[in-house]
Amino acid sequence: MKYRYSARTKSGELQVGFVESISKEAALNILSSHDLFVLSIESIERPAWYNGLVNFFNRIKRQDLVIFTRQFATMLEASIPLGDSLKSLYRQTKNGILREAIFEISSDISAGLSLSQALERHSNIFSEFYINLIRSAEVTGRVEEAMKFLADYLEKEMGLLTKVRNALIYPVFVVVLFIVTGGILMGVVFPQIEPIFQESNIALPMVTQIFLAAGHFLANWWLAIILVFIILLILVIDYFRTEEGKVVFDQLAINTPIFGNLFKKVYVARFAEAASVLIKGGIPIAQAIEISGHTIGSILYRDALHEAAESLRRGELLSQALEQRENFFPPLVSQMVAVGENTGRLDEMFDRISIFYTRDVDSLVSSLVELIQPALILFIGALVGLLFASILLPIYNLVQVF
Questions:
Q1: For 130-402, which CATH class?
Q2: Are the C-beta atoms of 82 and 137 separated by less than 8 Å?
Q3: Which of 57, 143, 203, 298 has fewest C-beta within 10 Å?
Q4: Mean of pLDDT values over 196-217
Q5: What are the structural domain ranges in the chain?
Q6: Whole-number Å distance between alpha carbons of 399 and 402
Q7: Is the fold of 1-45 the same as that of 130-402?
Q8: CA angle at residue 56 from 54 to 57, to 5 degrees?
Q9: Which of the four pLDDT bands, split at 50, 70 and 90, describes residue 123?
Q10: What is the CATH number of domain 1-45?
Q11: Residue 166 has pLDDT above 70, yes or no
């Protein structure tokens, strides 16, 4: 297979090219043997569409990954060797898929692979953010700090997701019930009562005419509708897995009202934490900024930070480079970075930025959760009222005729 890569030499020079290898791990080994720090590597061959379906059924629960990461971080902080930590985790893990993955990771490390390379062979379990942060920490020798950060981050993320999920259980139940009820009414009930309205020669309200037409369409084409929906879903998922699709998704994510602000704050918090870890480990600031861009999980932010790193190499201040990209980084970020540059405590400022925006994300999610539930219920209530009005209004007009 052929892979496209971007990497930095020991002198910091950017190198972009292609490498052929039997696997991604082998390609990484080839590049590492040439003293290159790999920033990104990806196959130029598009994966089969069914790979996502296979990964879906081979996934593990988020809680299992959180427990694994926390236990791993605790063992590394206790100075337990990497191999012994993995063997202990293998014995403790109950999830079969994760247990098998831990065994393979341990075997790969014993065979000479780095931890990040071993994790990358299980990209269906460990995210790109997870793997890239470990890879960055390996350069600095601070893997235990990166693992502790990942454990904290995953626990917070799971807490937020649990909060949102619990708040949406009732609204989702109402939505599903409405779709089922609406489908039965339009596809079964409406076609049966239509002859009554036609025989009475009463004028049907516009909303009733629309629902009657929709009912006929559903009754005649329900199978085709389901097939088209499934095909479109597969095509959309396949598109968003491409490079262009990822860019489009990122643009939608950060430009969507309300939610765009949330995504930006999440990305800024990730960037600040990764930059802090790298700078504390002695990585040059420009290289740390560029590497941290690959840990965020956003192509747009990755490119923005790559440009900021290049500006830094040309002699500009980091605060100025970030200020020029205020669409991605709020003014507070560039101001705090400027303070860090003046005081020589840039790593501390990044720590404070990460803590500030992490708390801000928690607060914003809590507010959104409180608003989503009543908003959804109000919206569904309006649709239910419209649906039943389309039946009751003609019946009322029919009674008036008699």
A1: mainly alpha
A2: no
A3: 57
A4: 76
A5: 1-45, 53-126, 130-402
A6: 5
A7: no
A8: 70
A9: confident
A10: 3.10.20
A11: yes
